């Protein structure tokens, strides 16, 4: 039975993402879920060989990239993203049975979640003090243990702990979504589906224009960049890793060309090519006609 | 007496940054310090006219950009950065007098700080549970109130609350620094010093290559970009604000050219030009000789 | 009375171009026409102070740029283009009075002209031998002197020498046109008209990509390049002068920017800005709004 | 016996170039030389199937590209360049036996040659009239027939016609060289030698920046462009063919990439890849390591 780590405890959105991967049949057999206290810890279990995969959040439509996930992917032995899933993120405010909104004096919230429900709290619980919890599920645990009166959590976490929902679908920003990825150790890249995403982490030579040059390798080949983030290397102030996502698959000829071009002047950590959960840009054009034309040139058959 | 907001409570690194600005004589007269619970709240006090300036953290050498500060600068009426300061960031682990390391079962830490001392905690307090605090100074308050046994905090906060220091200079990454900025409402740009930083937030047309185009406006003029960050707009999934910092001042001719070039195809929010605290790249070349040459051309005096 | 050199003898298309400049009132007073045996000779008279202006052909719609003109502009003291004119170029085949097509055994033709009437000759004078003349007007002189039976010339030259026209409007390529320029010594640039052309000759550093860089200085500013030619420097094999024409005037802010940008890394010989005879591309956008926006930024007045 | 056309008559530099190709063993067997009156005529014989190859001049270090050759390569069925040779170009001034410099009143010269010996003529034959001849060898024929007193020609042409050399090695520009190419009908491209040249003619979409884009396809791949020329299409005023030469061979991976990239947005006429007669730039880098790295990525073997 494969063991898959996730950012837990039980009841987090990340566990829901793992459940979704299971439903989609990504794994051939039932899996054993292994909780980790944060995304880097989940990836460390994978590097240590304790698990065969890890599910972590990578990007939120409200909060942007998830720094601990990105930093943990950049450092240590290379890992590879195998699949992705997106979840609507709306919170459930939970409390012990019988508690009413009017009785709530303290609210536990994972800081990332607290930032996404600030307006709701200001409107519905203006007098309550917000206390930091260690995760969304942890907020429910803080309620169950009596540490806080209410918690910004998930429906699943509340149910498991026998809590009531004071409010459902709580989110300041309608349509908030978070993307989660399934990460494994390096392996043959999944097959091209035609709707794929490729991700790399670059270390660029310390020269003016080297980032523009890297991005130009995609732009001149008509490849859509969908995300670019700089993250400090933590080694030297002012030096960065650059995380780039593009539309397409390493088996798309032009994406392959772009990666090889980057490899000529930068250190490229390849994070994988995998099926994108939705259309997210214009797919790269095919190289087939161009290649056929070139072969005709070489053989002296091209006439025009 | 000018009122200046800062990310508090008293004893945070941000308050130390404000103190440093005072020492440097940035303000002509003594200031009244106004604590705010987080960086966006400090900037909101400024927009509301409650204060005349705000000090907030903007970038850490370990954790990268500070998302709440960046997002609060991007939304709402335009604000302007007037000055910057950098502080070495090393933490003090505080406890109630008489407490020894061996007695510590729970440690309060602001999550950003917790991430920077993870190795230290694993080594020196391997069995302690880490509990989230609301700021670095808040961790000391949590110790004083008995909520936790020890706190990852600042020396200043510990002293003010009469706590003992269990350890000083605690940091997993040697040389960690954080940059803080003084923000005001739009005003005439401070004079060029020759060692300046300019910052903008861009909203780009939704076209392939528009980010490369924006960056090329700097690259072709030999202007060093020192930071680039994308942040979700929170309006539509997959749309971003781009935060760009470059070396130079709006009064450097080439920087002025680049800003005008951006303005032709993008929405540009100018965050200001101000004296950089240290050399951080190659300053833009002067335009003086080129302008003189051009004037000679126009008058028919250029001979070669 | 100003003396103006032209590529003669009398009766050439270049003399017609000079006549057109006179009709258009370019000169304030009547001019004395001074014939020169080729375009470089006309420009040499100007450099020697023998004349105050020179009219030379610069580009043909059939034959492309006129190399002797371009090379003579590139070498020696700088000269400046002040105005341009375009003429339809169709030839008149002239002969001594009484001659019929059937009697023509030899045809004089300036080689450039011969290339433009090759098909006509093959059809109407298939048996005639083509003999090189020194100019279009020279072909008529060769007829008058009895050296050849017929000449590919101009109507004007034939009339002046009392020759008959065997055929008029002779041209293999319908709509052939040639552009002529009036050249002077360096002087204040003529005023911007809104429909202008600017021309430079570049000597680029011997580095890969320097020509692309030069062209990018125009492209990123949305300035249309209308002509690019490389010409050997004649000093070292494989080294070139690059002749570039663009739409716009040195008083267009973006053209001025581009010229200054070129000046930072290349040797730029400015050949002038002058009124274009016809629309020949998209004029550069105005910089006025951008400059106004920038000034508001500097004063702290820009709100968005 | 293969028939090879050349720009004649006998005694031209082009015939010397053909002789050099024969000496080098380019042809497996003796060839029959077929004279053509100009470069386009030589290429037309090839297109008509009258000959199997043609030798034409393509570039002079003094006069630049040879327009009739370039235009004839651009129009009509595609032809392919198979080989190149360079010749030092210095002229021999010939006269009938017994003639002295002092007796020369008229000098025959092919206009291209006349332009390269202008200073010599001004110094040594200041009073002589220059008369246009149809080729360098034609100038010797004009001397032999008594049409002119002396001719700017080649040593070979003078010898064949029994003329004397008044002067040898005549050239205003020391080290003048001309490059000649052997052209055939489309055939499999000659093998890569590591010191090759590739040539294309582009028709670009009528959009601002399309030429820069084309050149960037070479620049971003580190491929040296060695020549760029625009030539009017003769169809519409202001429309051009662009002739580009680069260092490298279609079997160099990066050159192949660049050609395919051009093919995606432009009409590309491939003129061939062939061994360059001398080092003329930096050869393109190899793609082997990058391709190996990419294959390792795909198989999950890349570790860093």
Automatic annotation (TrEMBL), chains A, B, C, D:
EC class of the enzyme, as a word: lyase
PROSITE patterns: ACT, PREPHENATE_DEHYDR_2, PREPHENATE_DEHYDR_3
Listed GO MF terms: prephenate dehydratase activity
Catalytic activity reported: prephenate + H(+) = 3-phenylpyruvate + CO2 + H2O
UniProt keywords, alphabetically: Amino-acid biosynthesis, Aromatic amino acid biosynthesis, Lyase, Phenylalanine biosynthesis
UniProt KW Lyase keyword: yes
Domain Prephenate dehydratase: 3-185
Enzyme Commission number(s): 4.2.1.51
Record keyword Chloroplast present: no
Recorded metabolic or biological pathway in which this protein acts: Amino-acid biosynthesis; L-phenylalanine biosynthesis; phenylpyruvate from prephenate: step 1/1
Domain ACT as annotated: residue spans: 199-273
PANTHER family: PREPHENATE DEHYDRATASE P PROTEIN (PTHR21022), PREPHENATE DEHYDRATASE-RELATED (PTHR21022:SF19)
Protein name: Prephenate dehydratase
Organism encoding this protein: Rhodococcus chondri
């Amino acid at each position: 039975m494969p063991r898959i780590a996730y950012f837990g405890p039980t009841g987090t959105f990340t566990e829901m993402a793992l459940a979704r991967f299971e439903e989609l049949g990504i794994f051939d057999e039932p899996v054993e879920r292994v909780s980790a206290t944060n995304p880097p810890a989940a990836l460390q279990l994978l590097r240590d060989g304790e698990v065969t995969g890890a599910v972590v959040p990578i990007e939120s439509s409200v909060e942007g990239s998830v720094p601990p996930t990105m930093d943990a992917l950049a450092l240590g032995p290379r890992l590879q993203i195998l699949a992705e899933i997106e979840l609507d993120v709306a919170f459930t405010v939970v409390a012990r049975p019988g508690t009413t909104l009017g009785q709530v004096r303290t609210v536990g919230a994972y800081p990332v979640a607290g930032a996404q429900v600030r307006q709701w709290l200001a409107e519905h619980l203006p007098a309550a003090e917000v206390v930091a919890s260690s995760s969304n599920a942890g907020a429910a645990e803080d309620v169950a243990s009596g540490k806080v009166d209410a918690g910004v959590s998930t429906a699943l976490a509340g149910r498991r702990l026998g809590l009531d929902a004071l409010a459902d679908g709580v989110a300041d920003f309608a349509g908030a979504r978070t993307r989660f990825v399934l990460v494994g150790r390096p392996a043959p890249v999944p097959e091209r589906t035609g709707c794929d995403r490729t991700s790399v982490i670059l270390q660029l030579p310390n020269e003016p224009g080297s980032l523009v040059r890297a991005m130009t390798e995609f732009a001149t080949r008509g490849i859509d960049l969908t995300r670019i983030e700089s993250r400090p290397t933590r080694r030297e102030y002012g030096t960065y890793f650059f995380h780039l996502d593009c539309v397409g698959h390493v088996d798309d000829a032009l994406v392959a060309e772009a990666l090889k071009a980057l490899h000529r002047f930068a250190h490229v950590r390849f994070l994988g090519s995998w099926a994108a959960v939705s259309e997210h840009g214009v797919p790269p054009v095919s190289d087939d006609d161009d290649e056929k034309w070139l072969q005709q040139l070489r053989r002296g058959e091209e006439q025009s």
